[in-house]
Amino acid sequence: MKTKQNNKHINIITLGCSKNLVDSEYLMKQLVANGFSVKHNSNQSSEIVVINTCGFINDAKQESIETILQFEALKKQNKIEKIIVFGCLSERYRHELEKEIPFVDHYFGVYNQKELIESVGGQYKYNLVGERLVTTPKHYAYLKISEGCDRKCSFCAIPLIKGKHQSRSLEDIEKEAKRLVKNGAKELILIAQDLSYYGYDLYKTSKLAELVDRLSAIKGLQWLRLHYAFPALFPKDVLSLMQNKKNICKYLDIPVQHISDKLLKMMRRGHTQKDTYQLIEKIRSEVPDIALRTTLLVGHPGETDEDFNELLEFVRFAKFERLGVFTYSEEENTWSAKHYKDDIPFSVKQARMDELMEVQQEISNQLNQKTIGRLFKVLIDRKEGEYYIGRTEYDSPEVDNEVVIDSADKKLRTGSFYTVKIIKSDDFDLYGKIHP
After folding, report:
1. pLDDT digits 0-9 by tens, 147-167
2. Residue among 368, 362, 394, 365 nearest 379 (CA)
3. Spatial separation of the C-alpha atoms in residues 256 and 319, rounded to whole Å
4. Phi, psi angle pair for 223, to nearest 5°
């Protein structure tokens, strides 16, 4: 049956994390199936603008509000007919937003895509559940395996926004993965608020290893990457798969947040300093060539200089290949907001973050220097000016190191793999030549 063409153009603006991006991609598929002309993060004019917001921390919330106000100004100039806001920010602050920014036509939460589609005159198509219009380069895609979170971390508002952990079935995920690979994806990046908890709600046990094993068997899938695995309850049976299956990237994003036992307890993380050291040692012993990415939180109420120095010592010991740091942001109705006073000055938080990143910069530089002269399988993501930009299996798109290759060396194809010899490095990037 031919789709009825709709004359309206819709621009989807996505803010926040890759999980939000996947939600936008699901929405885009539904809107196109309803005959709309849909663009993503476009600068071109559209009659309807749909903003997918982030509400995780203060900076993200501020960016979402500024984006809404930017398009509100265009609507007041009659350059836009309709503004629709959905996602995390409007899930959490819908009533406040309706009062403060009434020029927005509709506010929806994170689980209201059906109502959103109906608000523009469309009809939600249940036969398209799990189908997306991928907005990333064709050769890689994010694959969301669950929603929500059952953890009790004191500082995090995600459970308040997205609710309890909801695993997708093994069959649904595998079906979507096969569709993505068939459409050209060579790399799939597993994402969730907590990969480690996958399966406990549906199957009463961890199913991450079984899922990874199933996906790795998909013909044509060359890289499978794991993001956001919680340290507590981490399914260690994944490690043997990672070591033995060639298309499972030796890469793991495992946010530890802190190392001081006092802070871990205050943060309600469910793991101790000893647990964390032992887990990292086990991961590195079972998968010796692995690249570990982590996230750290500084400036949580109660963090003393002594606690911070423990964290510095830990970072020097663990030598994470990839590391990000963010400062504590008090989120209303979280455990920390209710029970602790946000009494650490912002200048102290910022100084601690800067000091950690200086240490990490030195570690990254040292690790990168060790790659000089080695050969790596590199996936080319894009061309920028006179250079091709690619990644090894040890790097995720947009957040990690990149491999820079002079385009005068050889003509390369975006989305293809090449063997590259590293000839130079700096703090966060590698420079290479195509190996004959």
Report:
1. 999 999 999 999 999 999 999
2. 394
3. 13
4. -135, 135
Element (H, E) at 431: strand 429-434
In this structure, which amino acid lies at residue 271?
H
- Residue partners of 105: CB distance under 8 A and separation at least 6: 82, 83, 84, 119
The C-alpha torsion from 236 through 237 and 243 to 247, rounded to 10°, is -110
pLDDT of residue 6: 64
DSSP state of 185: -
Architecture in CATH for domain 9-128:
3-Layer(aba) Sandwich (3.40)
Amino acid present at 9: H
Say which CATH topology domain 140-369 has.
pyruvate-formate lyase- activating enzyme (3.80.30)
First to last CA, the chain: 51
Structure tokens at 175: 């079906």
Nearest to 106 by CA among 51, 55, 67: 51
pLDDT digits (tens, 9 = 90+) for 210-261: 999 999 999 999 999 999 999 999 999 999 999 999 999 999 999 999 999 9
Question: Is the distance from CB of 24 to CB of 12 less than 8 angstroms?
Answer: yes
Domain range summary for the chain, segments of one domain joined by +: 9-128, 140-369, 375-434
Q: What are phi and psi of 321, to 5 degrees?
A: -65, -35
Which pLDDT value is given to residue 4?
Answer: 53
